[in-house]
Write a structure and sequence with these properties.
With about 270 residues, this protein is mainly α. About 85% of the residues lie in helices and about 0% in strands. The protein is built from twelve helices and no strands. The radius of gyration is 23 Å and the shape is flat.
């Protein structure tokens, strides 16, 4: 018994050390990339006017680190979260409806493929006319980009559920709704969160695309403005901020997934 406990503790310690090692290597790579970028800019190996440099971006960040920059960040984050939430909720209900009706699923399958392949940004002018020039158009763009991916991934996951499990619960008299709630949905929690991980990035892409077209605030607006007045330091700083925001949002979804899995395992 002691050997088993000892082996388990050794395994957990090994996992912990591996996580620390992975994170350390990631940080080291990031530091090396930033250092190499700065050295290349200082040595004239790259045009710092075009690609900026870490030091110049820090300076412009400090200059703008006030209410204006916070406002732009909050606009982008809020629009992304709203678009992401709407895309996931709508996609979940559509995918669920398609699972309940295999006929509807077969009818909609080719249309979903076409819609997924369609460049949503090309519909930007139509969305602006339909939703109006404002946050509504930007959020609609985010939903348009993320919705179809959610529907397709969840539909595939629902229909890939172990048929033996479904047959078993149906043999005990379970109906379609009970089979979905007891088997299909719990089995596809990982699929749901995987689609959410993809969609949080797609929603951010949709928001930035919308802000490029019509916006008076947000990091997308800031990038367009900075490009027009040739403030490339501001452009690159905004891009780095977008990467940081995407990382934070992805990490939040991953954390939610771990919590959901623990809750399900305890039920």
């Amino acid at each position: 018994m002691k050997n088993t406990v000892f082996s388990r503790s050794e395994y957990l310690e090994k996992i912990k050390k591996e996580k620390i090692m992975v994170r350390s290597v990631q940080i080291a790579i990031l530091v090396l990339l930033l250092a190499g970028w700065e050295i290349a800019a200082q040595a004239g190996m790259v045009d710092s006017f075009i690609v900026s440099s870490p030091v110049r971006m820090i300076k412009i960040f400090i200059q703008m680190a006030g209410a204006d920059l916070v406002t732009h960040i909050l606009y982008t984050v809020a629009e992304t979260l709203i678009g992401f939430t709407l895309g996931v909720v709508m996609g979940f209900f559509i995918a669920t409806a398609l699972w309940f009706s295999r006929f509807a699923s077969k009818v909609c399958a080719p249309f979903l493929v076409v819609l997924n392949s369609l460049p949503k940004i090309a519909l930007g002018p139509v969305i602006i006319v339909w939703s109006g020039a404002g946050a509504g158009a930007i959020i609609t763009m985010a939903v348009a980009i993320s919705l179809i991916v959610t529907v397709m991934e969840l539909s595939h996951g629902f229909y890939s559920t172990d048929s033996n499990l479904l047959t078993m619960v149906e043999s005990f008299g379970a109906g379609k709704t009970e089979s979905f709630c007891k088997i299909v949905l719990p089995c596809n929690i990982p699929v749901l969160f995987q689609s959410m991980k993809v969609n949080i990035g797609l929603s951010l892409v949709g928001v930035i695309a919308g802000e490029f077209l019509v916006s008076e605030a947000g990091l997308g607006y800031l990038i367009v403005y900075a490009g027009q007045v040739f403030k490339m330091d501001l452009v690159m700083m905004s891009v780095i901020l977008l990467g940081f925001i995407a990382f934070i949002m992805y990490s939040a979804v991953s954390r939610m997934e771990k919590i959901a899995v623990k809750l399900i395992n305890h039920i």
